[in-house]
Fold each of these.
Amino acid sequence: MNADTNLTTPYFMIDEKKLIENLEKAKTLKALSGVKLVLALKCFSTWGVFDIIKPYLDGTTSSGPFEVKLGHETFGGETHAYSVGYSEQDVRDVADIADKMIFNSQSQLKAYRHLVEGKASVGLRLNPGVSYAGQDLADPARAFSRLGVQFDHIEASVFESIDGVMFHMNCENKDVDAFVLLLEAISERFGDYLNQLDWVSLGGGVFFTWPGYDIEKLATALKAFSERHNVQLYLEPGEAIITKTTDLVVTVVDIVENEKQTAIVDSATEAHRLDTLIYNEPASIAEASEQGQYPYVIGSCSCLAGDQFCEATFDEPLKIGQRLHILDSAGYTMVKLNWFNGLRMPSIFCRRENGDIQKLNEFDYNDFKRSLSQWSVN
Ligand SMILES: *Cc1c(COP(=O)(O)O)cnc(C)c1O
């Protein structure tokens, strides 16, 4: 199959060619810097395309026990596990399959280190107290942050009982100079501690696949850091790997007017593209044109009053039955799909490099029903 006009909307279309363009940049970064890259599954875990990604990256990083298991089973390589809060059962389940286990606090480390020793390399998340993030909600260094150990709270002896540390302090950071400054701040503040370790992970959020990003500058800074502290460096990219690879394809089912024209489509941000809503970041539509004379709200078919994808202008009036491609819909979307309003769940396809379209997932009424109850009271 290589025509997508017959596919029933809504659906996600992952483009292999675009994915490989991002992965080639990842390969360059690795080659120039010596850094290892593990895919953050919380951003993207559509394992049906992992065979495309595997040759380029070193493994995965996960939080919940199911993510860890999925990474281990479907991706392989190095499996990193970090959670803001592990239960004892989580630790027991994860320790057997993880290569690295990273605790969020010194109390969790003390409580569970003995369960991990001899099985996985042990790490601790530190909070550098500095960050690069557009919104407070996504800022790991926000006031009263619960993410990682603050510098002032570190017990120096802790470094005798761990192999590495993780810092995560970036969100969609497209500015290499800003990242290098963070790196220098960490080196200065935590350097004496880092010198005692085997590995340091610098987390995710470094947008090295953004057009024009100076990968060489990033690589030089990472290489210098790893040599200065004699550690293996890791990055944990999510968004950077799958950015701009995937459209959410929808159909206009109605057009209504109330001072503005709203085109209602057969999808909803609340159910299928949740971060549009959470971060109040409008989506982009492939068919829109900045100079267009016909403005529309692209509205969701959910019941939530403010649920819309964006406002956009078009060269021609939109028509009922017409398809729209909502761009850049891979990250933090498929991992957050939900059944709100009993909407049809988007199916998931991959357009291979040779043009073939392969189905990775489809959902039906039974998936919806089972997600709500499997047994009724009697
Ligand atoms: C969210 C997260 C990532 C991935 O972030 P991206 O912005 O998608 O690159 C990596 N590491 C940790 C600890 C995270 O919380």
Note: The longest strand covers residues 246-258.
Amino acid sequence: MTVLSFCHSSGFGSSLSGFIIYFITVYVHKLEPAQFKVVGPDHPVTAIVGEEIVLPCHLSPRMSAEKMEMTWFRSQISPFVHHYSDGKDQYGLQMPEFQGRTELLKDGLLNGSVALRILSIRPSDEGQYHCLVLDGIFYEEALLDLKVAGLGSVPLISVERHQDGGIWVVCQSADWYPEAEVLWRDLSGRHLPSFSETTSQGENSLFETETALIVTELSNQKLSCCIRNTVLNQEKESAVYIAGQSPSKPHTELIQFRVMGPGHPVTAVVGETIVLPCHLSPRMSAENMEVRWFRSDFLSFVHLYQHGKDQYRNQMPDYRGRTELLKAGITDGNVSLQILNIRHSDEGQYNCFVQDGSFYEEALLELKIAALGSNPLISVESHQDGGIRVVCQSAGWYPEPKVLWRDPSGQELPSLSEAKSLGDSGLFETENSIIIKERSNQNLSCWVRNTFLNQEKESTVYIAGQLPAKPARLNHLNQKQNKT
Ligand SMILES: *[C@@H]1O[C@H](CO)[C@@H](O)[C@H](O)[C@H]1NC(C)=O
Ligand SMILES: *[C@@H]1O[C@H](CO)[C@@H](O)[C@H](O)[C@H]1NC(C)=O
Ligand SMILES: *[C@@H]1O[C@H](CO)[C@@H](O)[C@H](O)[C@H]1NC(C)=O
């Protein structure tokens, strides 16, 4: 136990070397289990370049850490990011890049918090941090992941020169981290493909981007350049209005292909698989083109095929693992998308966007969702208004189904009440009631129909005309499911 006396000796230099020897010893022969745990956040912490961040870390159970020794370090324990021992911050063997930028938050020590503040965050601060706490012969540590993000400058748009029969417009912005996404849009919010894009990393490790677009002369249009940090989910945007010039040049646009959707809404059934059809016209290979299926947001797509591969970064989380671009027909211009396990929330518009170089076209497609619900459940409830009240319930329909009571000849019977509600899953539940005469001795059917799918479900009961002593559920005489 000579090692222990080292740990408690005064004077920083000896304390630290003792600490290192001790640390190795403990790691090799784990002497004692710790009496506390050290807990960091269970998710990465995101810091903004130039701002400060607090890296949380605390003892569990909560106990005073005032008399303990703690080290924040990265890959090696020495030099460290920050060290605290003998009730003081110790800077002797600190990593030079953290000099003057760290502070252990002492206010929290009494309740076990050993959080570290880092000032003036830099891109190089990104990565893992260890929060190590020692108390006598006990030690514990937690690992923490720090992500760094930089929100760059407002984009600067400049209208540069005539080139290739158009006007060359450039958008520049600096100080992004990590690399930002750049997007040109027109007045209606439609994405415009850029002609060139360059990104470079400056000395401060932050990214600069420059992207150019060629707009047709005579275009009279408003353009905006939008730059987005996908870590922060924040963007900066600038717009410019370009007035048409040189009316002597004819306005020509080369149509290389068109993108064709089905021309009518596509209907999918909840839980099943659907193919959203889309193809190029005239037929040509789309193998080396970009195919982007998206809903309202171009950047967070439903599916992206680019550089000959499916790309999943920035895919909408809702569609993760459920989409596939069917490659069998891609050389023939068929860029249909398959979606598995359809959900109610998949309903709505889809864009099938195909880009080849600076040329692009898109088609809009409407997806409708339908669900066929459960067999209706009929229950005989109580006497009411001189008759017997019978209730029919069914769930899992979309859209709202039509519900009818019918006699064996198919004649509609008037309902007493009708209720429809949307359940948690986004599907409709129905409950209809009817009063039938006592002693009616009749077969009664409850019929629920999805008019969208043209499919229905029906249940029938035989009512003997006398109510059992207690309200009870009757078994179905028969259940039918018809397709028409
Ligand atoms: C511990 O102290 C810190 C700093 O004063 C405070 O932010 C934190 O909420 C405290 N935690 C508990 C559990 O009391
Ligand atoms: C495109 O491919 C899909 C899936 O293989 C197929 O169902 C569809 O008929 C094809 N469409 C055309 C126009 O070839
Ligand atoms: C009710 O339906 C059952 C089964 O279809 C049939 O056997 C029975 O005769 C019907 N009863 C009446 C009163 O219509």
Note: Residues 1-31, 245-255, 469-484 have pLDDT under 50 and may be disordered.
